[in-house]
Specification:
Elements: H1 2-12, H2 17-22, H3 33-38, H4 44-53, H5 57-72, H6 85-88, E1 93-94, H7 99-104, H8 117-122, H9 128-137, H10 141-154, E2 159-160, E3 170-173, H11 178-213, H12 221-224, H13 227-282, E4 288-294, E5 302-309, E6 312-319, E7 325-329, E8 331-336, E9 339-342, H14 347-363, E10 371-377, E11 384-389, E12 392-395, H15 399-406, H16 414-436
Parallel strand pairs: 1-2, 3-4, 6-10, 7-11, 10-12
Antiparallel strand pairs: 4-5, 5-6, 7-8, 8-9
Helix pairs in contact: 4-5, 9-10, 11-13, 13-15
């Protein structure tokens, strides 16, 4: 009985603050609550929502613990800038940029925006409260990291230099993209159409020559210059001209539609290339990007891009669509005149389905890894409004910042990370081999 009572007490014990900080947030931002709270992403409103409505009971309890802690803690008091023995005894701060890089980072907030943060900190134009504000509210990850480093320096706390760069982002392409294949397909259709017309024209010329040289078709000049012959000749000429004009118009319409399709797919390919260029600038060799991934199985649709890194795996649906669009939940609509029309295929649903397929593909080898779905809006000229999206939507103007935000902590073990990269690399190479064969 004593053992049973002890076990019940253990299970009924409330989660500690440290345990609550280590619990992961929702899958759209699958990171520890403590980390998101320190960065300002989580506030009382979001924690109150999770404490009441989260499906995961562990997340629900952790949000309740953190919410109580926030409401009970006293107002923050800015620490004294003077050196103290406590500050020097703290563990070194780990940052992703060096002190020199932090000092050279430009301050983004008015009225001191555009000036190096190091100079502003030296002249005390930036106080600790200003740096704290930047840590919690700056959109740019570099500004947040610079504020962390300069705050540690102000408090005489050691700063640990970042690890040396791991080289450039690794990019592996499995096959031609969907856009490239469609361009080739439509170009082939145009070529076959032109070829067929050429063959028909040659056959018609040959037939006319045969008829002209045959005895039975020799013209009787008297019949030709009779009123009936002249009328018949005029009708023939009119029919020939009309048929030629109609054929020309039909060809023009058909080729215009084909050219428009080819141009749309060409823009789609350019959008994917733009996304890859930004990723090359934002991510290092700790990450791998796999393009045009076709998974085995009955569903042969490819995944535009799969991003694998220390902090997770992402299945990306890259869209380059002309016009004005909006996304609410899983629904996507485009403006057609004065009304909004629902897209037949939801990019959010496509991304989510691809993430589920990729997760199942990895699970077949015993790799249980959550795959996050995301839509990348690759056309900066097409306006997009987003409200309560089912999956994350990354726009081109915010893509580098989104990539900076996902580079937080380690959510994958090194062994799983290596297995995932090897498995996807082998899959891509096999697809390339099939294409060459």
């Amino acid at each position: 009985m004593v053992g049973i009572k002890s076990s019940r007490n253990t299970h009924s014990k409330r989660m500690s603050l440290e345990e609550a900080r280590s619990v992961l947030w929702l899958r759209n931002n699958h990171r520890p609550l403590g980390e998101l709270l320190d960065q300002g992403y989580l506030d009382e409103r979001r924690l109150a929502w999770a404490a009441e409505k989260a499906y995961d009971p562990r997340l629900k309890e952790a949000a309740s613990v953190l919410l109580d802690w926030i409401r009970r803690k006293p107002p923050a008091v800015a620490p004294s800038p003077s050196p103290s023995s406590d500050a020097t005894s703290l563990p070194p701060v780990e940052a992703s940029i060096t002190l020199e890089q932090a000092r050279a980072t430009l301050w983004p907030f008015r009225p001191l925006n555009g000036q190096p943060m190091g100079d502003l900190a030296d002249t005390r134009q930036l106080e600790l409260k200003d740096l704290g504000y930047a840590i919690e509210n700056a959109w740019d990850e570099r500004v947040r990291q610079a504020a962390i480093v300069l705050t540690a320096v102000r408090l005489n706390q050691a700063v640990k230099d970042p690890a040396p760069p791991a080289g450039p982002l690794r990019v592996v392409s499995a096959d031609r993209s969907f856009s490239e294949r469609k361009q080739l397909a439509w170009t082939s259709v145009q070529g076959m159409f032109i070829g067929a017309l050429g063959v028909l024209w040659i056959m018609a010329v040959i037939q006319v020559i045969k008829m002209a040289t045959s005895r039975s078709s020799r013209l009787n000049l008297e019949e030709l210059w009779s009123p009936a012959g002249i009328i018949a000749l005029l009708i023939l000429l009119a029919a020939t001209a009309g048929g030629g004009w109609l054929a020309s118009r039909l060809l023009d319409v058909a080729f215009t539609k084909m050219d428009r399709q080819i141009e749309n797919y060409r823009q789609g390919q350019e959008g994917e290339d733009r996304v890859v260029d930004v990723m090359r600038q934002s991510l290092d060799g700790n990450w791998a990007l796999f393009r045009n991934v076709t998974l085995p199985g009955r569903s042969r649709g490819d995944i535009d891009a799969v991003l694998v890194g220390p902090s997770g795996v992402w299945a990306l649906e890259i869209k380059t669509l002309a016009g004005e669009y909006r996304n609410t939940g899983e629904h996507w609509e485009y403006r057609a005149g004065n009304r909004w029309t629902l897209l037949k295929r939801s990019p959010s649903r496509q991304a989510q389905n691809n993430a589920a397929r990729l997760s199942s593909f990895l699970k077949a080898d015993g790799i249980r890894q959550w795959v996050t779905a995301a839509v990348v809006w690759a056309d900066p000229e097409s306006p997009l409004s987003v409200e309560h999206p089912m999956v994350a939507v990354w726009t081109m103007d915010r893509l580098s910042e989104e990539l900076g935000n996902i580079w937080q902590g380690r959510a994958i073990s090194e062994s799983d990370h290596s297995q995932i990269v090897e498995k996807l690399t082998a899959l891509c190479h096999s697809r390339n081999q099939e294409e060459f064969d």
